[in-house]
Amino acid sequence: MKILIVGGGMGGTILANNLARKMRHDLKSGKASITMLSASDKHMYQPGLLYVAVGKMNPTELYRDQVSLLEPSIEFKVDPVVEFNLDDNNVKAKSGNTYNYDIIVIATGSRTHAEGTPGLAEYAEQFYTEADAVKMYKKLESFEGGKVVVAVGVPHKCPMAPLEITFMLVDYFKQRGIWDKVQLHYTYPIGRTHSLEPVAKWATPEFERLGITYETLFNMKEVNANSVLSEEGTEAEYDLLITVPAHKGMQVIEDAGLGAGGFIPTDRKRLNMEGRENVYVLGDTTNLPISKAGSTAHFEAEALAENIASMVTIGSATRDYDGKVFCFIEAGEGKATYAMFNYQNPPDPKAPTAGIHMFKTAYNKMYWASARGLL
Description:
Helix content is 32%, strand content 25%. By secondary structure, it is of the alpha/beta class. A hairpin with a 4-residue loop joins β7 and β8. It is globular. It starts with a strand and ends with a helix.
């Protein structure tokens, strides 16, 4: 049984490690093999970019060698896939090599698409790559006051990112002693301050308490040098524009015609690609209407590892993914809260506490154990 995992992010890494431990006897006997293909030999802790953007973390803390995170029985290659041949059960990689499989898991992630809004990439700061996060921090360092607008596109990675960067900006400006010179304005595409209603009900009073103004039903149409125009016909003027841009799936997924926007149609419980029994999809690569978050990929990977292992041994899946997601929310002032939910139960965020913030800070270090599938 040849298992091929395409993508070395959080979902692919946790899946590979869990599978390697569950199938150790099959791997040792040669009955099965696990191969991972990745575009990089480095693994990035992506949530750390938010902290880099406000000077709370150094970029060097974000990386580990990918091979150091994997069980030794996993064959790891830096050889990104350039062509999916699902009818023939193989992929072609950048090296020119062809990799055959019995089961394939596609976990290629997502990418920002600021270019989809005219002017956004040119005028706004964002934090979804190391270079962008460092650039944003340097922009903040030179900012001496004025109107700051946070503008949000959909879909985007990490559902709490718009709220977190807004609250973290308040802290940043307070620590620099210029908060009284800043007018912070938050915009959001739907008719409340967050897509999850319970989270919006928690966040909106926090905005009002801190003096953050907000405008909902604001879908970015165009950005110029000093204002953002919305599809709804309004305008938000700015001196500094911060954005959580819309995301797309990876180009190779679009090029292969596997899903609109690079997101693959996926069964919400079994996580197989619709119409394909031996093709599975994880994390941001799915088209599921749930959070594109590391914890989503984590919990999906745990369920899928059990199913693939059981299919190899007994020929049947044994577990459904229940839509579980867990997201910390940095709330500023040294406090944090969290949202935990699944397909059946909505989130119910509590009042932020210093204890949850400390746990979130600790998780920034514990992540590497999580990637190894040990948490």
